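User: Predict the complex.
Assistant: Input components as received:
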Amino acid sequence: MGGLRASRPLRDTLGTAGWTMSAPALFLMLLLLIGPVLAVVAMSFTDYQLGAAGFAWIGFDNYAALAGDRVFWTSLVNTLVYVAIVVPTSVALGLGAALLIEAGGSFRAFYRAVFFIPVMATLIAMAISWEFMLHPQFGLINLALKSVGLSGGNWLQDTRYVLPVLAGIGVWQLFGFNMVLFLAGLKSIPRSLYEAGEMDGVASAWGRFRLVTWPLLGPVSLFVTVISGIRSFQVFDTVHVLTKGGPTKHSEVLLYTMYAEGFEFFRSGHAAAIAVVFLLFVLALTLLKTWAIERQVHYR
Amino acid sequence: MTGRPLSPLPAIARHAVLLVAAAVVLMPFVWMLVTATKPPEEIFVDDIRFWPERFYLFENLTEAFEKAPLARYLLNGVIVTVTIFAIQAAIALPASYALAKLRFAGAKAMFALVLLCLLIPPQAIAVPLFLLFYQLGILNSYAALVVPFVISVFGIFLMRQFFLTVPDDLIDAARMDGLSEFSIVWRVMLPTAIPALTAFGIFSVVSHWNDYFWPLIAVNSEHLYTPPLGVVAFRNEEAGTAYGPLMAAATVIILPLIAAFLVAQRRFIEGIALTGMK
């Protein structure tokens, strides 16, 4: 250890201490994380239902049932559509906000704080505020549209609007988080590069962005994109409170389907199979993120 | 990016765009507050008013506190988040010290396990945890709200990275003074780790104060509701009639975090942005 050459008894003491100190963490990791992951995979091969006396191993039947289940496919497609709206929009807005904030000197902390508030405000409470703003008759949004002569919609009950509207709330909540990551990325770009660019005759703001900012921000952008993907893939709160997956399954998303199967109908095996699908998607995205982080490190 | 100050025209354009964006972003908060100050007859109208003719905030707040045990929800939120973080820290600090500074057989395997556990999204293991708690008979209790989160692999990871930067000489000196390894964690490492621990604490408290998925599954008695469950229960009971009290209740639920955020903005942003590195 350090400068001190550890004697044998000291090494033994430290080894024992190491084990005693990490044993509680190890035990809890196995009990509350690794164990449940193995259990959820195992359960997805059974017909277990909560309260049933026993269960049978049924192989891939749950997965076969999912593959033939219209609701599951609707749910998966809706989730992917939601992700496909939220990710590019929240990444673009996050980048735009970060660039604009950094472009000038005044009120930086103010704007940053304002855009960050939705990230940490309790989403459930804000969903209820959104619900009232989206109220077809007395909601702020339809009243505002009416005042400029447009007719609004019944946003959360209309099959055409419900998913994009939920995605809009998702963007509102997420883009401030992306902005903070982009701000950190912008700070790490050395000033000298902009000066060098200027000496080479890059005068316009667009030129500076295209030739210096964007190439250096590339890895950060990849990273932010993947994180946004992981976060938006986990959409649940707004769906559960505002639409319950409706109208007619048009806002049914993966976690909501899993919740309903597992905790409303108590079809645990079926829910476990959905959980495994969810887990695989998130794992794939996380591995992509790890790869993005490594790329970012090599870049510097 | 920041170099020369902008010339007047771009500077004005920058503020114009950012101010409009800020107004849009804040609108759900503003409208929530505005609605919370209005009497019923001013809520169900078809024009937009940003200031009530009859200031009704106190009446709405009183009604909210009478109809729903809001104080109880807030207290539950505090009990749950503080207990979770206290246990997370008590477990993560010694473990991350051991992983960063002690060489013991299996240390590498254990760190690999931490990294593996970082990949697990909590929702994916809700079904088996629910069944486990059902078997143990601890559903619908504070234990059910707290236990799944007492281990924070993110906390272990974060604190280990921080402890790696603490010089070994400091630890060796403490050993020479006769401190046990456990005392080193609490008396030498902990004081140096306050900034990292604060970031971890903010991240932990914010995520569990706001969590809806697990409490929804774990408890069903009103006296155990956390703030998000409580505000949804209130809204389901009032089903579209009492918007004033409902918005007052929602304001009360988000206020503690917003107030803390406004006081310690920078720390909050750092604490939560850390999750990005997770």
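Chain A touches chain B through 105 residues (CB under 8 Å).
Let me know if you want any component modeled separately.
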